[in-house]
Specification:
Keywords: Endonuclease, Hydrolase, Nuclease
Organism: Cytobacillus firmus (Bacillus firmus)
GO molecular function: endonuclease activity
Number of helices: 7
Strand order of the largest sheet: 6-9-8-7-10-11
Oligomer: single chain
Bound molecules: zinc ion
Pfam families: HNH_5 (PF14279)
Radius of gyration: 19 Å
Distance between the termini: 41 Å
Protein name: HNH endonuclease
Helix content: 25-40%
């Protein structure tokens, strides 16, 4: 036929990209995966309206600089270099994720709002633009699932994700989902070497899906071991052997596991 494919982000017919294609997980946070079946307009819009804003988010900027996913030189900053935001915030990595320590001024300001002690869990401090992170997660889920499972593109569940991505009103049936879960456990103050170890041990990106007993596709995402998102499809007629799991090491920009999900 014409050799056209369906763009997962807008459902319009398009040619397969000759060049780089779209990175469902931005390259700037260390993912090598490309979807070449995204039209040029969506590729450009995803870059300017979503990826660029996402990467400028203070939290994402901190963690990608620390994980050295930012540049090809793979230079890992020290904890203190990476952790300073506008001179008023320091970040602490704990087993459960990232916590912020604040300067006295910022502390006083926030204490009037939250009434907390020295270290606040990320969840309670709005340094992160949650809306842009949700959009980015929706784009990741849609772009990755569509790449490996093209049937997903025409699903109602994909329509839902497209509406989130492009900020359109969500109409129709809403799938069970959570586009932004922030890991929270007890934090501990740690040194550079510990932080490097944390990133090396836990700071991976994860993407995977499988068909559950109800016939729904369950799709999971994890970014830097800190942010999670998932969605269960409205559709309940997926083949029961659909199953994929990928782990990406952002430091080496490399997929280190690509295989079936084991239970
Ligand atoms: Zn498109």
């Amino acid at each position: 036929m014409s050799g056209l494919v369906t763009c997962a982000y807008c459902k319009n017919p398009t040619k397969r990209a000759n060049g780089d294609g779209e990175h469902p997980i931005p390259e700037a946070i260390g993912s090598p995966i490309k979807n070449k079946e995204i039209c040029q307009k969506c590729n450009d819009d995803a870059n300017t309206l979503i990826d660029t804003k996402y990467i400028e988010d203070k939290f994402i900027d901190f963690i990608r600089r620390f994980a050295a996913a930012k540049n090809k030189k793979k230079k890992r900053l020290t904890y203190s270099e990476a952790a300073l935001f506008d001179g008023e915030v320091k970040a602490h990595y704990g087993e459960g994720g990232i916590y912020f320590e604040l300067t006295p001024d910022k502390m006083a300001e926030l204490q009037t709002i939250f009434g907390h002690d020295e270290i606040l869990p990320l969840k309670e401090v709005k340094f992160t633009d949650e809306e842009i992170i949700k959009k980015e997660h929706a784009k990741m889920l849609l772009g990755l699932t569509s790449k490996y499972l093209p049937d997903f593109i025409i699903s109602k569940t994909a329509d839902f994700l497209r509406n989130i991505i492009w900020g359109k009103q969500v109409v129709g049936e809403i799938p069970e989902h959570n586009l932004l879960i922030i890991r929270e456990e007890i934090s501990r103050d740690i040194q550079d070497e510990d932080l490097i170890k944390y990133i090396d041990e836990y700071g991976y990106h994860f993407f995977g899906y499988f068909t559950n007993d109800e016939g729904q596709l369950e799709i999971y995402l994890e970014i830097f071991g800190c942010f999670y998102a998932y969605i269960k499809t409205i559709e309940k007629n997926w083949d029961k052997d659909i199953n994929k799991k990928m782990v990406i090491n952002p430091y080496f920009k490399k997929t280190i596991i690509d295989g079936p999900w084991t239970f």
